[in-house]
Amino acid sequence: MYLFPMAKTSIFFTLFFLSIFSNSIYANNELDSLLVVLEEEMLKQKNYDQLKEQRIENLKKLKSDQNITLENKYFINNKIILEYEYYSFDNALFFIEENISISEQLDNNYFIKESSLKLAKLLAMSGRFKESIDILNEIHRTNIPKELLQEYFFNYQRCYSELNYYSIVKSTKQRYINLFHAYKDSLNIEIAKLNPNSLPALALAEESYRDKGEYAKALALNTKRLSQVKLGTREYSMIAFERSYTSYDYLKEKTDQKKYLALSAISDIKASVKDNASLTTLAVILFEEGYVDKAHKYISFSFDDAKFYNSQLRFLNISNILPLISKSYETQSTIQKTKLKQSLIFISVLFVILIGALFYIFKQFKKLEFARNKLKSANNQLKDLNNQLSYTNKDLKRLYEELSASDRIKEQYIGTFLNLYSEYINKLDVYRKMVVKDLTTNKINALLEITKSKQVIESELKLFYSNFDESFLHIYPNFVQDINALLKEDKKIVVKKGELLNTELRIYALIRLGITNSTKISKILRYSVNTIYNYRVKNRNAAINRDEFENMVKKTP
After folding, report:
1. pLDDT tens sequence across 528-546
2. Residue 407 lies in domain
3. Confidence (pTM)
4. If I label 210, which of 60, 86, 223, 533 is the partner at 20 to 30 A Cα–Cα?
């Protein structure tokens, strides 16, 4: 399909601006998410600080060993200094001075120079540039070990860079610039000796590209540096901070700058870095964009960090912007309070009008409700009477059914036991006639044999148990399961095949019927009292609730 040149151009620009717009929305959403994470991390600051304090405390405990050597104490102090370096100026200073004293006692030139350079670095970081340079000037260049030359030149470079930034006298400023470049050149020579992929070498190359205005190459190296460090370390914070400025210089887009400042600030909080600049810089940018609330929150947080660390440099930086942000915040708060007050007055008036309207409606509703309630009351009374009658009929029906069932059971068992008594009377009569016959025919020996045999008693007992079991289980069909439910899992009573109940269950069947005396139970079941007692003790011990077992048996349904 043919398109005119103008149409092609129009489509091209439309797609171009849509692409930029969609990228902008994505970038803003990403920044908003990062700011949410940042504020969540700000709330967790105490947790991170507690972890750092615990690490420091563990290191201090190592020094309490009475047999520790001065050299080992020096190395432990170095680890403590590393923890305190960006966390607490006063504590870092204390342990550096302690290490200087140890170095002098050991007369170790390397230790003395290393500790002096740590002190110079600490003073420079906190804005005490003059003191830092005085210490560096006392160190003779020729006496510095090669491993410490990089730190030596870096401290000089940092001091003169900062002095140049804060100086307002042209001649002094130029002198500081010259000294800065001299020490920077010396530092570059030392770094050039390192592995080109090491962090110092990459940082030097990135700075060189940035100074030349080759921002794309600088950002590429910065990405490489970021890949070698982890979020939550001082190194990550510094590299992300540097990237924020490179991104802005290159893309002129503040969203990327704020993104990396936020990442740097998050890393600072995770690493318990109190000597930081990212959050302050982010607060200033947000303030300039009109986000006064966030700016005030971030600058106040940074001020607390600077106060904790005791950094003159941070105090100086924050003091230039804090009053302005605080004043704007207070002004905004006052405006918001005024608006809120006006809104409350307006809402209060509306509320009074609403209450009046509701009161009028309520009165009308009450009149209507009164009339309805009279009719409803009459209907409810009639309904209640019907319900009561219905409930009464149901209760009568239930009682009738229960009485009928009870009567049927009584009739059934009265007949069963009358039949049993009749059979026993017949058996006694037969037995009487047999005795008379044997006595008459002088069969005394045969009679004695019959009376000595237990077969008759055993067969009668067996019949008695069978009748008792059937009758009892007819009344309480779930008795075996109910008893087992009261016993421990491995102590359940198992009835043999062909039996309905066994001796243990018959004992508790009699207890369920209200016969609890062991003597009476023994007479009924024709066992010794001791046997009955042993069975009862055994099953109480097997019960889930030993003390309440027999009471619970009496209550089985």
Report:
1. 999 999 999 999 998 999 9
2. 393-453
3. 0.56
4. 86
